[in-house]
Amino acid sequence: MSESNADSERLDFIREIIAADNESGKYGKRVHTRFPPEPNGYLHIGHAKSICLNFGVAAENAGGKCNLRFDDTNPLTEDVEYVDSIQEDVRWLGFDWEDRCFYASDYFDRMYEYAVQLVKSGKAYVCDLNEDEIRKYRGTVTEPGKESPFRNRSVEENLALLEKMRAGELADGACVLRARIDMAAPNMKMRDPLIYRIRNAAHHRTGDRWKIYPMYDFAHCVSDSIEGITHSICTLEFENNRELYDWFLDALGVYHPQQIEFARLNMTHTLLSKRKLLQLVEEGHVSGWNDPRMPTISGIRRRGYTPESIRKFCERIGLAKRNSTVDVTLLENSIRDELNATAPRVMAVLAPLRVVIENYPEGQVEFLDAVNNPEDPSMGTRQVPFSRVVYIERDDFLEDPPKKFFRLAPGREVRLKHAYYITCTGVVKDDGGNITELRCKYDPESRGGGTPDGRKVKGTIHWVSEPHAARAEARLYDHLFADANPAEAKEGATLGELLNPKSLEVINSALVEPTLAEAAPGSRFQFMRHGYFCVDSVDSRPGRPVFNRTVSLKDTWAKEAKT
Ligand code: ATP
Ligand code: MG
User: Fold this and answer.
1) Which residue, judged by its Cα, is nearest atom 14 of ligand 1?
2) Are 462 and 529 in contact (CB under 8 A)?
3) Whose CA is nearest to atom 4 of ligand 1?
């Protein structure tokens, strides 16, 4: 069985546990989950999986609740910028924590009281070993650890030292508070783990009030307990931490939620680690956390994804029997499906070639009916201006075409979408022999497609009218990482070396239908024969639009699924 099967079973397994607990009345038929990000970076698509799961499971159960809780216990890496972005992203994904946004730092007083309680019951002690020594004393998976020489301090001495730590009388690293469990425990996490460490650092919420900060394993279970969480869902790496989670709550004799683990999301051509994503931002490999190539929610949003497409993706990966690394094409497919049904189809020429239609009257303009989306007649039609000079894609003309080339060539006829049949009658070149312009004639009878003599053409190409077209910038994106599995790429490779040098292609002088000049930031279109594009929310200006390619038209996933 692949890991993904385990994962998909685990999702059902979470629902089964909850159903069984509801049945037995273990938590009085309550379902209360939480999404607990650390505000030390922007959320990514892996977090979306956790958000959909936690908020989703709560919503599926009558009266179910899900808290948003900032796990803000490390003042050195956390920032309000991240708090704000996380709230924005969760809301954008379509989830509502109502009045239940909490901060682990709100519980610092309570946590300290709990620590004192552990000391008083002989279950915690202040240890003066430094980081290195603690590591050495811990032993290995095959050898038991060694007890700290400070392990048997009296309760009074421990209380006095803990108070000194709290009051800021000791320097960073002078000592730590540890749980007194078992230095020979088979589970290394149980070998007297840290509870508090000294950090003379200002916190983004509590300011200078605290000089000691709780460790994740202590803060997390206590926060869950305080909030009355029933099912504390976390990723598989925390499986070994569960024993400690249970130990702390039992030792304190407080309300006890159930920790349940599920497999984290990994995706091809993508790194899902806030630390690595921060590095990409800091080293300038991307324009910021919201660069449309980033797997962050803000990047994906700017790229043109919708909340629905991400929720659908999370649903699919949860149920499909797939490898533990999800193919990024599955994500692309989720937005392609949606935009195929909802995005208006418009014409944009990315590499323009000028075409003069010699038998079309000079100065004449007509407006042609264009269907907005053949998949959805309710989206109606629009009027597209046509005139004597149009632009087509350079690629849609070949001077010396192979037989199967059904686009434009000398003497050949094609259909201009929504307009007329044209035939190429001449090619204009510059001194260097480069094609600068085509001469064509049109058939006035072919308006709207079709001719009185029933003549058919095989090719249909898109175009824009010269006097009407708006200039635009188009940004074409490809995978940020060339390697399908950048996390497993060769040892010692820097992040920079793993990047795909062609992850962004900027086209400065694309030409688009006139209505697109003023398109609102965030609006989405299908550029016929090119892909789905979204007006960039950061750099786009009225009259000078910038379009991000969300995804190309080609559906590599559907192709792969067939084979
Ligand atoms: P990262 O490794 O990117 O820093 P993290 O686990 O440290 O992630 P947190 O802010 O602690 O980030 O994560 C908040 C929640 O999101 C946790 O419950 C965590 O389990 C979950 N989560 C994080 N990454 C993933 C992922 N790739 N797939 C599923 N859930 C994830
Ligand atoms: Mg974490």
Assistant:
1) 37
2) yes
3) 274
Q: Is the CB of 273 under 6 A from ligand 1?
A: yes
Cβ atoms of 29 and 230 closer than 8 Å: no
- Give the neighbor-by-neighbor strand order of the sheet with 65-70: 32-35, 65-70, 101-103
0.85 surpassed by pTM: yes
Bigger pLDDT: 174 vs 9: 174
Identify whether 38 is a catalytic site residue: yes
pLDDT at position 561 is 57
- 197 is a catalytic site residue: no
Q: Is residue 86 within a helix (H) or strand (E), and if so which, with residue range?
A: helix 80-92
DSSP 327: P
List, in sequence order, the alpha helices (H) in 320-363.
Answer: 328-342
Tokens of residue 441, six digits: 């004639």
Percent of the chain with pLDDT over 70: 96
pLDDT of 191-233, one tens digit each?
999 999 999 999 999 999 999 999 999 999 999 999 999 999 9
Strand 176-179 relative to strand 194-198: parallel, antiparallel, unpaired?
A: antiparallel
Is 274 one of the catalytic residues?
yes
Q: Can you tell me the mean pLDDT for 289-303?
A: 98
Q: Would you say residue 304 has pLDDT above 70?
A: yes
Q: Which of 34, 197, 242, 274 is catalytic?
A: 274
How many angstroms separate the CA atoms of 530 and 510, rounded?
Answer: 12
320-341 mean pLDDT = 84
> What residue owns the CA closest to ligand 1's atom 29?
264
CB 235 within 8 A of CB 14: no
Q: Ligand 2 center to residue 205 CA distance, Å?
A: 19
